[in-house]
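Morning run. Coffee first, then this:
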Amino acid sequence: MLSVECIMLTPSQAYGGGQPLTRILLVEDDDDLREGLAENLRLNGMLVTEADSGTAFHAARHSKSFDVAILDVNLPDANGFDLAASMVGDAMRPGVIMLTARTGQADRIRGYAEGADLYMTKPVAGEELLLAVRNLARRIQRAVPAATTTWKLDLLLRRLVSPDGRLINLSGREILLIEQFVGKKGEPIMRYALSEILGYGTPGPENRALDAVLRRLRQKFSDAGLEAPLTSVNNLGIRFIPPLIMT
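And here it is:
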């Protein structure tokens, strides 16, 4: 099972002070424990993706990026130590917290050897985990070089990559739409031109297909904890504000 994030804040609230939401990957096969921990993190302004297996972990990891991964050790189809080790070489490696009932010294040593930043044992207080996540996320973010403002359209993998590495998976029409803004440097493109390119014909009261595509795209940005870089200009044209390149 891989859940869709439940965002407790609006995008504008999430960007208070210009800071994006902290993105958490929580891997735990005990449903009650996972849901309780996830709810506490969400109520404290974090984006949480839940995974109950190694398979769900890999699916999440390869579809988006995270600031912190919280890993159980004993999963039905994987070992949390191996999951931690699998991220060591990642360019956008998240901070790793092992959260497990295994308290032995050998287990703790193995956890750190496999790349864990923190090793915490169950049961854990929600406030303690929250503070550990916040502190680790701050250290990870400070260690990352100053971010570029450039977005990337990856045609091969059919996704848009934000300046801080977040991934927006795109449909065929969404790719075609975003592709029109490559190299435009924020210049607007007329709505009728975009509608024609997408094969929808002239937009109007009876033809809202372009609006539907834009609405789905903006929802994807919101789900990723991002402000949509697409804006309307006087209800006539659409702009992609930041620099955009194609890879």
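The chain has nine helices and twelve strands. Good start to the day.
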